[in-house]
Amino acid sequence: MNYQNIIRQLILMVLVALFVQCSGSRHVQKNKPSVPDLKVPQVQREFRAAWIATVANINWPSKPGLTVKQQKEEAIALLDFLKDNNFNAVIFQVRPQCDALYNSEKEPWSYFLTGAQGEKPVPYYDPLDFWIEEAHKRALEFHAWFNPYRAHHTSGGAVSENSIVKTHPELVVKLENGFYWMIPTEQGTQDHSYNVVMDVVKRYNVDGIHFDDYFYPYPSYHKGKDFPDDASWKNYTDKGGKLSRGDWRRDAVNQFMKRIYKGIKSEKPHVKFGLSPFGVWRPNHPESIKGLDQYDALYADAKLWLNKGWVDYWTPQLYWPVNQVAQSFPVLVGWWESQNFKQRHFWPGISPKAKAGSTEADEAFNQVMITRGMLSQSPGIVYWNINSLLKSEELTQTIKNGPFQQPALVPASPWLGKQIPDKPIVELSEVENRIGVKWTMSEKDKVASYVFHYKYGEVWYSQILGRNESLKLLEVYRLKTEPLEELMDKQQVNDMLIPLNQIAVQSVNVFGQMSEAQLMDVKSLSENQLPSLDELKALIKEEQLKLAAQKERERKQKVNLDLKSIIDEGDTEVEVLIGSVKQTFSVDSSKVINIELNTPDTVKLLFQPREIVLPIEKITESESFVLTKEGMIEDVQSQSK
């Protein structure tokens, strides 16, 4: 090991030691809003994303053939979940097996959407348009995720007549595990996949294009045998090709990656291209690292793509814990960053396991903080997959109450565009004890989002708003947190109020660059709309009723559900959807699970292909129920009487 590597490892050890010492507890005091002197607060920059997989219906839709209404409801629930927990991007799989979850003339509609490859949704809608629009409403970036070479998945139903397996059999081989795979060295493969990607770039308002780790298939997919491309290899050598078979395969993938990057930039320079390769490039890089050699096994020279800057963001799948020596998370972060010659975004992918009471929540918390320490110029993290968050309230709350307390903007990409956008044009109006704030932009098509700041008293608050938002209504004052029970005079009224003093709006363009703040003083407007003594008393009473209702909504209730009559013999897990959060419960020999809910919540037991919706009005009346085969529930207490 040379001196530079020794120094790098020592610095890494110090960083990790300091981090562990500072972050041993997850009981984090919530940050207070910033209190600047003469300017608006700075919004944090950090990429916060989750993968949403459609292959095998891993995340969405929950099963093939749902109604359009059900598909949209599930999509909205996932996007709301990300927004509510201060994420700012979604990586959504639009092409799981040479098919499309969007309207395409190049590939058939996906089996995972409708239950039959080639069949469009009825009534018709374009899921990709819908996802993009709804993501942008929530100020979430939308990245379209493609599998460049997988032609058919074993869970993808029958191979249809319009599948590439049938339309271009010369480009496809079948693997021992039943998958069909396109031959990466064939020019037809490269042209087809390139055209599919560019079709989406041209027709849809995506913020990013994303590839995962499936280049050549993993060796286990073909039972350890060599990839079956003998005919293509013979054709290459017959024409005088000089590369070794491994270099020939790698070169084909390299050229495809370079072509995709250049194609995206020539069409829409602001659209980011991101890659998520296997987390280890080669064993012994760095020296302590062991594991699969993707350079030899997957013919993916991922280091080269990063070295050359053929990406805008780099998301290697670092799905290992901090203290796993052979694949240590911080050690791999340090090594990949040392290869980031072009200073692209480096946002590692992590995979916390959704197990209640486990250490996974701590591990995920620590990994976020390590990326902030080691990649401080452009921090970020991507979760595989959204189910890891949905199934573990502990994990979600640890992240939300810790590193993701405040919203964050996606870091800017200065190599794509450095122009600072203009300030929004802001107009104010008085609207029934509220102040209306309306803004416009001269180049609205270049806006990605807005940052909206407002100041009550001496405290600033900030929100990140979607690109199509242009209006906010704010109360002219806020009540202090401890309202007096008796108000005697006008002076006490004034003492009870925190006035709205200033607002500011900033625009963020598609390259992530933010404008100066358009700062507006609104104190004079606020003072004209202060309430009378009687109005304030009524407001205080209303506020107290709201707080009481909120406390009632947040009241947690534990309920025992006996599944003996409904669960199949040998089943050890059951999925339960509580509100919008899906959780997996282990089932022991008693066949009784304990759920905890905030009333009122919706509760569904998910048994494919059916779901059992539990009547919430009955659940809230007792603590233990037996489920019958008909899906009804019987109160254990009433049974015993």
Mean pLDDT: 86
Q: Domains counted in the coordinates: how many? A: 3
Could you give me the name of the CATH homologous superfamily of the largest domain? Glycosidases
Helix-strand makeup class: alpha/beta
**Low-confidence segments:** 1-38, 636-641
* Count of β-strands: 30
Based on CA inertia axes, which overall geometry fits?
Answer: globular
Give the CA-CA distance, first to last residue. Answer: 76 Å
Percent in strands? 15-25%
Major sheet, described briefly?
Answer: 9 strands, parallel
- The CATH class of the largest domain is identified as Alpha Beta
Under CATH, the topology of the largest domain is which?
A: TIM Barrel
With strands numbered from the N-terminus, the spatial order across the biggest sheet is: 11-10-9-8-4-3-2-13-12
Q: Helical proportion?
A: 25-40%
**Compute the gyration radius: what is it?**
27 Å
Reconstruct the topology from this structure.
Elements: H1 3-22, E1 44-45, E2 47-52, H2 68-84, E3 89-95, H3 111-114, H4 127-137, E4 141-146, E5 150-152, H5 164-167, E6 172-174, E7 180-182, H6 187-203, E8 208-211, H7 230-238, H8 245-267, E9 272-275, H9 294-297, H10 302-308, E10 313-314, H11 329-338, E11 345-346, E12 349-350, H12 360-374, E13 380-383, H13 386-390, H14 393-401, E14 408-409, E15 425-430, E16 434-440, E17 447-456, E18 459-466, E19 471-475, E20 477-479, H15 490-496, E21 497-509, E22 518-521, H16 523-527, H17 533-553, E23 556-562, E24 573-578, E25 581-586, E26 592-598, E27 603-607, E28 610-614, H18 616-619, E29 624-627, E30 633-635, H19 636-639
Parallel strand pairs: 1-14, 2-3, 2-13, 3-4, 4-8, 8-9, 9-10, 10-11, 12-13, 23-29
Antiparallel strand pairs: 5-7, 6-7, 15-16, 16-19, 17-18, 17-21, 20-21, 21-22, 23-26, 24-25, 24-27, 27-28, 29-30
Helix pairs in contact: 1-12, 2-4, 6-8, 11-12, 12-14
